[in-house]
Amino acid sequence: MVATQNPIEQLQARFKELEAGFKLWLSKQSLPVEAAVVTSTSAAQGAAIGAFMGTLTADASSTFPTPPPNASLNPQAMASLKQAQALAGGPFVQARNFAVMTGVNAGISCVLKRIRGKEDVQSSMAAAFGSGAMFSLVSGMGGPNQAANAVTSGLFFALVQGGLFQIGQKFSQPPTEDIHYAKTRNMLHNLGLQSYEKNFKKGLLTDNTLPLLNDSALRDVRIPPGPRLLILDHIQRDPDLKEKRGSRN
Predict the structure, then answer these.
(1) Which of 133, 134, 122, 128 is nearest to 158 (CA)?
(2) What is the membrane topology listed in the Swiss-Prot or TrEMBL record (predicted)?
């Protein structure tokens, strides 16, 4: 009797294959195309989250008074009112704000990763600065001096993001027994395939075996076709691994 696979597991496996295929296609595109796609998809995700959050704060935003057109409020009071309205806006306002924050952050991160070849705290803080500055400008929180407030917001976002990045790095340090999988872990993280690290460990595919990997070896440790293509493509494009593979051949 043939055991049928769980439909949820089939759906998850199919989704992972589609995701891996999309990332493989995206990695072969030019920098402008990749940046545009990453920015658009991240902005769409941010807009969806913002719209949902906006439904929770819609009632709160309606309680803020709307000053008459000819009212003479001092600039500081008007700026404070705009800040409160921006942070407690309805679905449309929050969707716009979150779309800008997530889209700009992802776009800058994508560009810096392609140019610098790595993700570190400097890239993370630069992306956060850009998203914070754009959020300030789009949300109308700048008050009478929008440029200065945009810089201040950007710096605040960058400091928070830098701190969170450092904390995440500290708690994500691998155990000492995993030092033989450091390069493998970094490769899988960059490809978005962290879930397959356990497959490498079960097959004892350490960092030293990376230049020797082929489709058969990855298939033996039960890695699906899509992720296999991504991994092999990364090895062929990586200068260090490509050089080691060539010297051994």
Answers:
(1) 128
(2) Multi-pass membrane protein
Give the per-residue SS3 of 85-100.
HHHCCCHHHHHHHHHH
pLDDT(126) > 60? yes
Which residues 6+ apart lie within 8 Å of 200 measured at CB? 181, 184, 188, 206, 221
Third-level CATH fold of 181-247:
DNA polymerase; domain 1 (1.10.150)
Check: pTM over 0.85? Answer yes or no: no
Q: What does the pLDDT read at residue 155?
A: 93
User: Which tokens in the block code for residue 227?
Assistant: 């992720």
Residue ranges per structural domain of the chain: 20-62+79-172, 181-247
Give the pLDDT confidence of 66-117 residue by residue, as tens digits: 555 554 545 555 555 455 555 556 788 888 889 999 999 999 999 998 888 8
Distance of CA 44 to the CA centre of its chain: 13
Output the six-digit token pair for 8: 């949820």
Report d(CA 134, CA 153) in Å as an integer: 9
What are the tens digits of pLDDT across the range 165-215? 888 877 766 555 577 888 888 889 888 898 899 999 889 898 888 888 899
Q: Is-contact 57 50, C-beta < 8 A?
A: no
DSSP 204: T
